[in-house]
Design a protein that fits this description.
Radius of gyration of chain B: 36 Å
Number of domains of chain A: 1
Distance between the termini of chain B: 79 Å
Strand content of chain B: 15-25%
Shape of chain A: globular
CATH topology of chain A: Arc Repressor Mutant, subunit A
Number of helices of chain B: 13
Order of helices and strands of chain A: HEHHEEH
Largest sheet of chain B: 7 strands, mixed
Largest interface: A-B, 24 and 30 residues
Structural class of chain B: alpha+beta
Largest sheet of chain A: 3 strands, antiparallel
CATH superfamily of chain A: Winged helix-like DNA-binding domain superfamily/Winged helix DNA-binding domain
Oligomer: heterodimer
Helix content of chain B: 40-55%
Strand order of the largest sheet of chain A: 1-3-2
Shape of chain B: elongated
Strand content of chain A: 5-15%
Order of helices and strands of chain B: HHHHHEEHEEEHEEHEEEHEHHEHH
């Protein structure tokens, strides 16, 4: 098992919102999806996943509905709300700005004079 | 943003109804998670038992997860608070003696603090209710045993004649003294005397009627009084016809000429109901009390541009001259005192603070007695 990487504060919200753009998903599905997409680098423990899901739901960015899973078990499915989509856009912009700035500071990309 | 608030509000309203259901839903959600993890482990080749054990270990503390989820809810702490309150009330029911003494202690403490504060507040934290109060000073002799300055009649007249640093000076007879209103509705009152000049010195005008005229503030002048707003309202129902009427104080008829404003404070902060003119008699003052005259309280307004220190320096020669009159043992103990009126009132505040704690009307009597004690001390030293 690869060592899990510490997530930046607030990054988990962004990852969850992004993951849910592909459609409604239950908590387990969200965790698996993030793990797959990150090639097993990011493993979201339930201890942070579920509080984050509930927090986003209370903020009105995602909503939950009970439905049936692939194996026909009752499960709670989360999906993006319109407010959540808007939020994702601003968070993505923030992320781009932040990561570019951090990369500049760390000297990982040569400064391009535009 | 708005939708966020609406959803918060919705959750807030439904919270009690849903609290229990939500816990079971959380449990179901976690259970689903563990089942999925178990299935995934089996798919990796573990035995069913091993898979489930690993899934549970991976999941970690269920109770902790549940709490952390519940803490995401806006206002979750209200529940915790209610729990604490309920726990506290149960404790109270178990040990009643403790509960009663705790509540009584709190009630007394809050009551006492409020009472003291309501007295001290206008004295310490508000501007004095006088015109340009910063230039008002309390003046006179002070003794080591008597911090509150006063003058006796002889010296007061001397100061008034040579009051170079002061724009005006006026005197109040010593502390308020008990007197009786002898009428259809008799009442025990507090009477005090002051000079016609005191109200103008403080920048106060009567709310009804007028101040004493100079010709009323002389020995054997016409008997006139001003009454307090409280007496006007309480005894005379706020009747505006009170002006010009005669009231009977201690068996002597006196005509009411004015009513003091509702928020008027005497410079000593001691309440009084009836004010009579001081009618200072120079001849009598130079005879009474072994030639020193009657003790009285003197107040003055500094001339514009004159500082406290300058006033003290100007009055020092006058004081030194007068000190020679005192018996030698008293001389060393006597000093000149010119200090802001506010400072004097703050000094009186520790006395005033005690009054509301004394039972009811006795408070006013206590104040008067303290004042009488003071004037006795002053005379003794002089």
């Amino acid at each position: 098992m690869p060592t899990s990487t510490e997530l930046l504060q607030g990054t988990l919200d962004l990852l969850i919102l992004q993951t849910l753009t592909t459609g409604s998903m239950h908590g387990w599905g969200v965790a698996q999806r993030i793990q797959q997409m990150s090639k097993d680098v990011l493993q979201i423990g339930q201890g942070s996943l579920y509080p984050a899901l509930h927090r986003l739901e209370y903020k009105g960015w995602i909503r939950s509905d009970w439905g049936n899973s692939e194996n026909n078990r009752r499960a709670k499915f989360y999906s993006l709300t319109r407010a959540g989509k808007k939020r994702l856009e601003t968070e993505l912009e923030d992320w781009d700005r932040l990561s570019a700035a951090v990369a500049l500071v760390l000297g990982r990309i040569p400064e391009t004079s535009s | 943003m708005i939708s966020e608030w609406i959803s918060r509000f919705r959750f807030f309203l439904r919270r009690d109804l849903l609290a229990r259901r939500r816990t079971s839903e959380l449990d179901e959600e976690f259970q689903f998670h563990v089942e999925q993890a178990t299935a995934a482990n089996v798919a990796q080749g573990m035995t069913a038992e091993e898979a489930r054990r690993n899934a549970l270990i991976e999941f970690g503390g269920v109770e902790q997860a549940r709490e952390r989820c519940q803490e995401q809810e806006p206002g979750w702490w209200i529940d915790t608070l209610l729990q604490d309150v309920r726990y506290g009330l149960r404790g109270f029911r178990r040990s009643k003696a403790f509960a009663v003494s705790a509540v009584l202690t709190l009630a007394l403490a809050i009551g006492a603090t409020t009472a003291v504060f309501s007295v001290v507040d206008p004295i310490l934290f508000r501007a004095l209710p006088y015109a340009d109060a910063g230039r008002l000073v309390s003046v006179g002799f002070a003794f080591s045993s008597e911090r509150e300055e006063f003058l006796t009649g002889k010296f007061y007249l001397d100061w008034q004649a040579s009051h170079k640093p002061f724009a005006a000076m006026a005197s109040q007879g010593d502390a308020p003294h008990p007197c009786d209103l002898v009428e259809n509705h008799p009442a025990e009152l507090e009477c005090v005397t002051f000079q016609a000049g005191l109200l103008p010195l403080l920048g106060i005008s009567p709310v009804l009627g007028r101040n004493f005229l100079p010709e009323e503030d002389v020995p054997h002048g016409p008997p006139v009084v001003m009454i307090s707003y409280a007496l006007w309202q309480g005894n005379y129902g706020g009747d505006r016809q009170i002006i010009g009427k005669e009231i009977n104080i201690d068996g002597n008829l006196a005509r009411v000429v004015g009513v003091l404003p509702r928020d008027f404070h005497f410079p000593t902060l001691q309440p009084a109901d009836v004010v009579q003119p001081m009618a200072l008699d120079p001849t009598a003052q130079n005879m009474a009390n072994g030639g020193f005259g009657i003790p009285m309280l003197a107040f003055a307004r500094l001339k514009p541009g004159v500082s406290l220190a300058e006033a003290q320096a100007e009055m020092q020669p006058v004081f030194d001259r007068e000190k020679a009159w005192l018996p030698p043992p008293a001389r060393a103990l006597t000093r000149l005192s010119i200090r802001p009126l506010r400072e004097r009132e703050m000094g009186d505040a520790d006395g005033a603070g005690g009054e509301p704690l004394a039972a009811g009307p006795a408070g006013a009597d206590g104040g008067a007695a303290a004042g009488a004690g003071r004037s006795g001390g002053g005379t003794g030293s002089g």
